[in-house]
């Protein structure tokens, strides 16, 4: 480690870098916390709670210097389905708290390597599916659809959402990133400010286009500390007798852990100092965050790559920036809730529509297709399965398909074969791969049975570190049977059957 490299603990040496970075992350996180709560069918205040806990508690407990945690788009489907399945938000909170306990246990079981065992095709399929669901769920809000009053669209909502999307996309043009204002002030924040201004303009000049109270953010406004504390929703522990609570909890724990580990890995790659986050400690930190969030009414959370990227790009050096962003979220909801309630839901829908498109953009489907069927099929199966079932079932089906292709690939790559042109006394050289397992039995047995009479066969195990005893049985049985077909068998460094474990 360089003497000038910041460590991964708390340090106040870099406040001049960390505090401005924390402000930038706060500006990015605020509309996302509200938008994700909206998309999840949960109280908007729950998104802020999760952002505060992710920013303060998880950042403090985590070993990551730059990762930022909070409510994640990847969990919106789970939250929405979970609340629907369990019947109420307070029962869903029990599942969130249990998921936190499960994550802590996973951390102590050293399950931090779990992220390495999920194929990227399935992970990308999961994210693309979430993107599609976000788009489908947010479009009605963006156009002002209101089932209660039989309103199919609202011109004010459409104008605000369209302008918000245009601002966000304009803000992300590469040519603008060289200017500090466009680099450090997020487009989503500008879209929200413009949306508020537009609605105020409609109120005074074109009342028919103005949004009703139902189309605006609804955060509870506390007059004193007692009222503020009363805004928190407590879990309904009578739900502990409902087995579905545990199904939802396990789903949250798996998906939140996976997304956190992948986001943390990405954060380490973005880190200019290339510090490595201890993954088991990260699971414990995320579990602690979800446990507390579930106990006081917050959404489940993960490490989030969008906020982490903003943190890195803003020049953060230590976890102080993430903690500062959490404190700013707390201050905003305590002191400025009435101002936040002026935000049109169409603005938040616009933010999430852009997030959804980024997750499920057409170029991703083209990229996966170009990688070949063994990547594209698990990817597309995961996407489709999630649309027609739920996240966990979709991922499980995608994993099964991915495993099929992995086994199929291993089945084909268990050996290399060099064969002379068919002639009298021809020779065949079979070079076994580094690891030959029981999966390879079928292809090796078939190849050996197809070898013609009057052939010289060399089976070379000089590159092999491990050969399964079942495969050795096939080789030695072939050596015996080969005499009947006038096949000469030469074995090169093929171990005796009894010594396979030591080979």
Task: Characterize the main sheet.
Answer: 4 strands, mixed
Strand content: 5-15%
What is the string of SSEs from the N terminus onward?
HHEHHHHHHHHHEHHHHHHHEEEHEEHE
The pLDDT mean sits at 87
Helix vs. strand class: mainly alpha
Question: So what's the oligomer here?
Answer: single chain
How many domains, in number, for the residues?
A: 2
Q: Tell me how many strands there are.
A: 8
The 3D shape can be described as: elongated
Unreliable stretches (pLDDT < 50, length at least 5) are: 499-503
Concise overview:
This protein has 503 residues and is mainly alpha-helical.
Protein model, in words:
This protein folds into two domains: 389 residues, no CATH class; 88 residues, Transcription Regulator spoIIAA (2-Layer Sandwich), CATH 3.30.750.24. 61% of the residues lie in helices and 6% in strands. It contains 20 helices and eight strands. It has a four-stranded mixed β-sheet, covered by helices on one side. α5 packs antiparallel against α15, α5 packs antiparallel against α18 and α10 packs across α11. The two termini are 39 Å apart.
Properties at a glance:
20 helices, two-stranded antiparallel ribbon, Transcription Regulator spoIIAA, disordered C terminus, elongated, 503 residues, mainly alpha, four-stranded mixed β-sheet
Question: In terms of topology, how is this protein built?
Answer:
Elements: H1 15-40, H2 44-61, E1 69-70, H3 76-86, H4 89-108, H5 120-142, H6 155-171, H7 180-184, H8 187-205, H9 225-230, H10 243-270, H11 279-296, E2 302-303, H12 305-313, H13 320-335, H14 337-340, H15 345-359, H16 362-370, H17 373-388, H18 391-412, E3 415-419, E4 427-432, E5 435-436, H19 441-449, E6 456-460, E7 466-467, H20 469-482, E8 488-492
Parallel strand pairs: 4-6, 5-7, 6-8
Antiparallel strand pairs: 1-2, 3-4
